[in-house]
């Protein structure tokens, strides 16, 4: 149980590290996506432990898995895709303008404008 | 029609307006396109303002709570439209509608712009009445995505980079927000505010209190990124400075405050329950009050150092939000009313400043406060508008900033916050004097300077009916807000549930005018120091210090780490 949480934390921190340290903008977008996936996995993995049957309504009352965390994550995945799409669009426009994906180079060029 | 339907219509109207704008893109005829755009904006920005008027009688009695479409509570979206939601909507729609009018003259004119603008407005009103943590998350995300795209709309390289940084920090914050939501759901088994409030009273074990405390820290810090207070404000100046002027006005005026008050609707509801966790709330709010007060001072020092006029105004927004947070964190109904008043008045005068300064920037082609001269040539209305805004933000009677700042100072009377905020006001006055330099006529000596650029100084009077209309609306609102501040205070007080008026009864007295004059004198002294040689050296050092990408994220993790450690240590 604990190992799950530790692994998920590692995944999240990996994304955070990538977003903070990597210079390439596309890789930063990947990192953003990894970060988001870590949170989604947290909901799914932890949420699946509330109850133990498939959430299908039937005659006999069973302790089925709480469906809410999974349902919420569908929304979160959609939101994540929107953010990724917009991020990639911004990166593309930045590349068109400065012909580089290196964040430091872009910031230097932008400040000299 | 019952008030529940009115609320749903009011939320859905901006969204339908956005859909109309997208449809208008399909049309070939330019005139038809523009006509549909106008109709969409009328539907999405002006009609909801009218609806709010009809909602007032119901809201002033009691909050309206319901599930959209009468769905089952398990699957339905719960909305809670209370006094604070009403106040936030008034602020949002007035600022958004006026700024949109400005964009009709100054641009951008494309249907996509209007569509995104309306989606952002939709997210604002949905955030203001959300009563469910997950729904709040979704609203924050829509609000965010629309604003990242709108920031990039000016098409400049810097704007793209600013939008990217804003998005990176803000998305990370939202991931943390989700973790907080998960923690709360795991412990209380509920997502709606009411459900959480019910379960929270049963919490007794230390492990649950710590777990809930840490989840709250995640949610509070994630929201603080949107609100832009210390230490997580780094994304704001660049984003607000590079966005189109109409968007800057909405971003600074409304977008940074709605998340704060939405968070307040959640926190204060939980706090009203007597439970073991109340102590954690108090600690978090104390930290926010400290952070808000310091933000007011630190940001104004940065503002004073800027050359770029729009960056100067952006730092002012951070400083003013500091005032709002410092009052809001007291958490009494009167404090919330005062915080809302300042938030609303700030939306009006900052909108006015961004739009009038934007007009000067567009006319002169420069953003440098030291190069622009003779800005009065752009016309009488922008000039008057600028000075109304500058006097309001510097809290001169009888303008609106004077009343709302008086309300906030009244709350802090006798505490250390009072002193810090007073120093910050001196900084505000000094930086407004600096900004007013743009209106000094160009002297003969200016032409001799090496940085003199003859093209910049050819300022022509601006034309454009809607530009002037928007400036006049904001300016009138600033003056009226000041003159009728007591009535506004009573209204805000009633809607948040208190009989006492946050605005002090003796507002325009001889003493207050004396106080203003002494602040003005200190402001002038501070300004003289800034333009002196050592002052120039210091401000130049501060100005060139730009937050890097990694720095933004580092500040965020620092904030979350500090507040988390505080909660862990105390329990």
Helix/strand layout:
The complex is a heterodimer of chains A (113) and B (571).
Chain A: H1 2-21, H2 25-47, H3 68-98, H4 103-111
Helix pairs in contact in A: 1-2, 2-3
Chain B: H1 3-24, H2 30-61, E1 64-67, E2 78-81, H3 83-106, H4 111-129, H5 133-151, H6 157-188, H7 193-200, H8 206-227, H9 236-242, H10 245-255, H11 258-271, H12 278-305, H13 309-328, H14 333-364, H15 380-393, H16 400-412, H17 416-436, H18 444-448, H19 465-483, H20 485-496, H21 510-531, H22 533-544, H23 549-570
Antiparallel strand pairs in B: 1-2
Helix pairs in contact in B: 1-2, 1-4, 2-3, 2-4, 3-4, 3-10, 3-11, 3-14, 3-19, 3-20, 4-5, 4-11, 5-6, 5-10, 6-8, 6-9, 6-23, 7-11, 8-11, 8-23, 9-10, 9-13, 10-14, 12-13, 12-17, 13-14, 13-16, 13-17, 14-15, 14-16, 14-19, 14-20, 15-17, 15-19, 16-19, 17-21
Structure keywords:
heterodimer, A: 113 residues, mainly alpha, 4 helices, 0% strand, elongated, B: 571 residues, two-stranded antiparallel ribbon, 1% strand, globular
């Amino acid at each position: 149980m604990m190992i799950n949480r530790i692994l998920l934390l590692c995944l999240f921190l990996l994304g955070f590290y990538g977003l903070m340290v990597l210079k390439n903008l596309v890789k930063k977008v990947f990192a953003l996506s990894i970060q988001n996936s870590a949170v989604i996995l947290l909901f799914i993995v932890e949420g699946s432990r509330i109850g133990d049957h498939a959430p299908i309504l039937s005659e006999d009352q069973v302790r089925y898995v709480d469906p809410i965390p999974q349902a919420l994550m569908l929304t979160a995945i959609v939101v994540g895709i929107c953010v990724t799409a917009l991020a990639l669009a911004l990166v593309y426009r930045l590349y068109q303008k400065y012909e580089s994906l290196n964040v430091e180079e872009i910031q230097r060029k932008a400040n000299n404008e | 029609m019952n008030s529940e339907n009115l609320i749903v219509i009011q939320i859905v109207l901006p969204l339908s307006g956005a859909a109309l704008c997208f449809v208008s893109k399909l049309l070939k005829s330019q005139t038809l396109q523009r006509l549909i755009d106008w109709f969409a904006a009328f539907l999405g920005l002006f009609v909801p303002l009218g609806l709010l008027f009809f909602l007032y009688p119901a809201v002033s009695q009691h909050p309206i709570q319901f599930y959209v479409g009468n769905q089952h509570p398990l699957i339905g979206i719960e909305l809670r439209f209370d006094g604070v939601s009403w106040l936030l909507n008034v602020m949002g729609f007035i600022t958004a509608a006026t700024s949109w009018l400005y964009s009709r003259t100054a641009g951008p004119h494309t249907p996509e712009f209007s569509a995104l603008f309306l989606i952002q407005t939709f997210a604002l009103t949905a955030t203001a009445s959300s009563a469910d943590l997950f729904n709040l998350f979704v609203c924050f995300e829509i609000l965010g995505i629309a604003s990242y795209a709108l920031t990039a709309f000016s098409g400049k390289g810097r704007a793209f980079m600013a939008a990217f940084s804003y998005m990176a920090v803000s998305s990370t914050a939202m991931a943390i927000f989700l973790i907080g939501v998960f923690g709360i759901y795991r412990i209380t088994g509920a997502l709606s505010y009411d459900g959480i409030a019910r379960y929270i009273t049963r919490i007794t074990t230390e492990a649950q209190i710590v777990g809930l405390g840490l989840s709250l820290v995640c949610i509070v810090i994630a929201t603080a990124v949107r609100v832009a207070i210390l230490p997580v404000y780094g994304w704001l100046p660049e984003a607000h400075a590079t966005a189109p002027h109409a968007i800057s006005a909405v971003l600074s005026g409304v977008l940074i405050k709605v998340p704060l008050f939405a968070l307040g609707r959640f926190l204060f509801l939980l706090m009203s329950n007597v439970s073991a966790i109340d102590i954690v709330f108090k600690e978090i709010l104390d930290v926010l009050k400290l952070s808000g007060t310091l933000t007011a001072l630190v940001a104004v020092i940065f503002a004073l150092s800027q050359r770029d006029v729009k960056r100067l105004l952006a730092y002012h927004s951070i400083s003013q939000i500091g005032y709002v947070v410092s009052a809001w964190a007291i958490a009494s109904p009167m404090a919330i009313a005062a915080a809302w008043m300042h938030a609303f008045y700030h939306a009006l005068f900052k909108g006015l400043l961004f739009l009038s300064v934007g007009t000067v920037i567009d006319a002169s082609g420069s953003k440098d406060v030291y190069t622009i001269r003779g800005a009065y040539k752009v016309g009488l209305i922008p000039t008057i508008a600028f000075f109304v805004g500058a006097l309001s933000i510097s809290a001169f009677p009888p303008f609106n900033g004077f009343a709302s700042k008086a309300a906030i100072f009244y709350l802090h009377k006798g505490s250390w916050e009072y002193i810090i905020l007073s120093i910050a006001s001196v900084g505000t006055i000094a930086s407004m004097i600096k900004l007013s330099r743009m209106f000094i006529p160009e002297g003969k000596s200016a032409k001799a300077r090496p940085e003199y650029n003859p093209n910049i100084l050819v300022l022509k009077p601006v034309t454009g009916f809607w530009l002037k209309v928007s400036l006049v609306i904001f300016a009138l609102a600033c003056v009226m807000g000041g003159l009728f501040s007591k009535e506004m205070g009573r209204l805000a007080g009633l809607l948040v549930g208190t009989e006492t008026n946050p605005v002090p009864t003796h507002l325009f007295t001889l003493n207050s005018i004396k106080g203003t004059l002494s602040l003005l004198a200190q402001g002038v002294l501070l300004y003289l120091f800034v333009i002196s040689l050592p002052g120039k050296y210091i401000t130049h050092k501060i100005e060139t210090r730009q937050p890097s990408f990694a720095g933004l994220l580092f500040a965020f993790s620092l904030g979350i780490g500090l507040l988390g450690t505080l909660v862990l240590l105390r329990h």
